[in-house]
Amino acid sequence: MSETADLLLRGARLTDRDGLVDVAVAGQRIVGIDTTARSARESIDVGGRLVTPGLVESHIHLDKALLGDRVVSTAGTLEEAIRLTGEAKRAFTVDDIRDRARRVLDVAVRAGTTAMRSHVEVDPIVGLAGLEALLPLREEYAPALDLQLCAFPQEGIVKAPGTEALLRRALTLGADLVGGCPYNDSDGLEHIRIVFALATAFGVDADFHVDFADEPEHLHVREIAAQTVRAGWQGRVAVGHLTELAAVPGFRQDEIIAEIAAAGVGVICLPATDLYLMGRRDDGNVRRGLTPVRRLLDAGVPVALASNNVRNPFTPVGTADLSHMAFVAAVAAHMGTPADLRALLTTITLHPARLLRLPDYGLAPGCYADLVVWDCAQPEDVVAVLPPRRLVIKRGRVTIEAHHEVRQRWREPHGAVLSSERSGHRTMR
Ligand SMILES: [Zn+2]
How far apart are CA 331 and CA 244, in angstroms? Predict the structure, then answer.
């Protein structure tokens, strides 16, 4: 029996099987993955292209993105990035934040992102302006992307009086979860305690920026793992950066990773920022400063790669396209075999979906139809060659349809012109 589908992707290649299949969608969900002939209201032959679940951006800062035209960092250190961005933040307005956020969201959607967690700074400098700017975007972008907002105390909690009350207010106003930043506080352990108290009081997840240094000077992740277990918050806590873990010997990494795995804490690697900001004091043999991605994956820890920042003092480059992060990680984390490249694809899809606790995510009947059709056939190509996205689908509806035409004029007979070009004048579109 096969009911009429609303959308049928014919001739799709999936990551977990050989041969081509049709992906049938009814309403918001996938209803069939097979070769059964069926009718559909809209049928698209994807010509053997790869189809994956939508990309999941688990860690980005929409509120401080795109500052390249107003802030220039010269030292390139974390301390400078926090200071310069803190100064720029004084001039942020709700409209300014919202405008920059929309520009990033638009490119992320075009890149195939169907879910995103953004940190929103909540502190005595910017108050709740970031939240005020971004909350309406959750509704505005709902047809294209699920947006989670994490109330984030970048300036610390203990050393920035008033922040705890602002976090409380942000959670009351509708922030989805609470963030932490113990490395930038005068009392990191008290900072962690306050974040867990807020998470459990409001019944929300917690997401920490943690252990962001070249040397293992904090290792707050151990305290976070312990408090996660104490609070019964397994599966609800993520930590970003964790670069210090790379600085301890392998056997100690294994001990700490075992604590992280036992606590059900997820790890988010931010390769562009971490490669840019870490190792700044190294004079020769500059460290990579990336958390040990492969070791964490091998231990069964959910590991996501994420963009973090797009064009600001923390990361002066960026496109909000997660395939770029996987490409960077392939070389920076020494993960280049076909199996490694496939594993990296899961760090921008399945793993972050788990961290964000997205319901019914995946490519199976019953899952929401959040999909990307790539201009390639093999899963490892997503990471290796950054293929264009041909279609993006959110909850069963096509959100992005991309056409890209390249004409190799050097191969054409000299002087060949299309009739439309005869006048010699053209406007590029
Ligand atoms: Zn961040």
Answer: 20
* C-alpha of residue 275 to centroid of ligand 1, in Å: 14
Residues 32-77 have pLDDT tens digits of: 999 888 999 999 999 999 999 999 999 999 999 999 999 988 999 9
The per-residue pLDDT for range 90-104, each reduced to its tens digit, is: 999 999 999 999 999
Cα angle 59, 64, 65; round to 5: 75
- Ligand 1 centroid distance, CA of 350 (Å): 20
Sign of the CA dihedral running 102, 104, 105, 111: positive
From the list 206, 123, 121, 129, the residue with the least C-alpha distance to 159 is 123
- CA 209–ligand 1 middle distance (angstroms): 6
Q: Vertex 388, ends 142 and 334: CA angle to 5°?
A: 100
Residue 417 pLDDT exceeds 80: no
Tell how far the Cα of 302 is from the centroid of ligand 1, in angstroms.
18
CA of 308 to the centre of ligand 1 (A): 5
The residues, ordered by sequence, that sit 6+ positions from 21 with a Cβ below 8 Å of its Cβ are 12, 14, 33, 34, 35
Distance from the alpha carbon of residue 105 to the mean position of ligand 1, in angstroms: 16
Report residues near ion ligand 1: CB below 5 Å.
308
Residue bearing tokens 């918050």: 233
- pTM for the complete prediction? 0.96
CA-to-CA separations, 219 to 48, 189, 277, 295, 413, in angstroms, rounded: 47, 11, 18, 17, 64
Q: Ligand 1 center to residue 219 CA distance, Å?
A: 17
Spacing, Cα 132 to ligand 1 middle (Å)? 19
